[in-house]
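Our preliminary data section would be incomplete without showing what the modeling component actually yields. Below, a chain of 238 amino acids is followed by its predicted structure, encoded as tokens that our downstream tools consume directly.
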Amino acid sequence: MTKQRARSTRVLFIVWRVATLVLFVLAAGLLTAYARGYRINPARFSFEATGAISLTGEVRDVQVMVGSELVGKKLPLYIAGLVPNRAYNVAITKTGFQTWQKHVPIEPEKIATYGPILLFRDQYSLSPVEPPDKVGLCSRNERSDTARLEINGGELRTTLDLITRVSVPIADACWFNDQYHIAYIADNKLHVVEVDGGNDVIIAQSTENLTAVAVAPDNSEIYVKGPAETWRKISLED
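Predicted structure:
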């Protein structure tokens, strides 16, 4: 009986070790898969890859919505576990500011990244200012050949890609230093648009003829030129 009991104990110990090892391997696999964005789909009883959205920038006191769900109140923000092969409506709102929004397609195991995101007020005032040193303020023609801004009537583009198209001639355009936003003038209105053509917003307008635009290196101010070499500015930090 003693030998049989000892043999049974060894068998149970081996079974316990094997079960522990199997559970460890399964848990490690599940954790690795979870870290890579895989989630359980209860409808299909399967483990499926998901996608994610990364919103970069330094924005506070906002509401970040994915569809009708509030997912955050500040940027940067990482939104994981999104069902792939579909598109999500993402919106960032803040009282007194224009809404940022994007229709984001999601692919499995991929991250859709946008930013740095800036929010702009509903309207800014143009204030008189001494003529700025535009050298160093506007980098429209200081980028590489593929990133140089080109204007053709109502089209604004880089060498490779169309950024935006409007129904009136574009007078001037200038990169922000973040390389993600572009300020441009059309019909005496000051626009800011993202490099992919999204979130094209009007932030100021004038009854005078605006002919040139420049952006401060720290992205804090935008300058526009009116008649007789007069310049005005808006402060984005107000």
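Residues 2-35 form one domain. The mean pLDDT is 84. Preliminary results of this kind motivate Aim 1 of the renewal.
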